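Supplementary Methods, section 5.1.

A reviewer requested that the exact input to the structure prediction be made available. We therefore reproduce it here, unchanged from the version used in the analyses.
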Amino acid sequence: MLITTQHTLSDSATIYPQAAAVVLLIVRGREQHLLLTKRSATLRVCPNDWCFPGGKHDTADGDLLATAWRELYEETHLSAALCQPMLQLDDFFMAQRCLVRPYVMSINEAHFLHHFQPQENELSDSHLLPLTDLDNIVAGTPAGTTLTRDPAYQLSFWCSGQHHWIWGLTATLLACLANILNQRNFPIDKGKTLQLR
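The structure derived from this sequence is encoded token-by-token as follows.
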């Protein structure tokens, strides 16, 4: 069963392009991790950024949940049959003038390890972020990045022997998850002011 939130930006959904993102929770015994993917350097939008699988709505999808499933499969080869829908978060507005609807899904570790195949034309790396790392979210953005939200958040982590940063919409979604799962109280900017730019 998919639990939906009560307040979305659906009044703007017909004006702006729409997209969906999948916040995938991997259940590893008592531990839980979130799948982060690093976008390929060749992609036009957000190259080299760490984010959640997702992308723009296609008219053939029908609805944004179908978009989420299609994008998840295209990027990771994980199908809807392997995952359990959990939660639909509120819509967020991106600086690229697009509405994003995030869906939280879960998958058990055995299915994930057996079926996960990152698509090299879209992804250059992946990382399983422990859910406990949500406690390390801080305000601000990494040096050299542009603030588009107020407040903005960031989270650092190590992957493949290097230090990486999560920021922008992805970090805001992580802060939103921390509010829900860890009972934090991060103020969340869903990007409504970006619509006026």
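The longest strand covers residues 18-28. These observations are discussed further in the main text.
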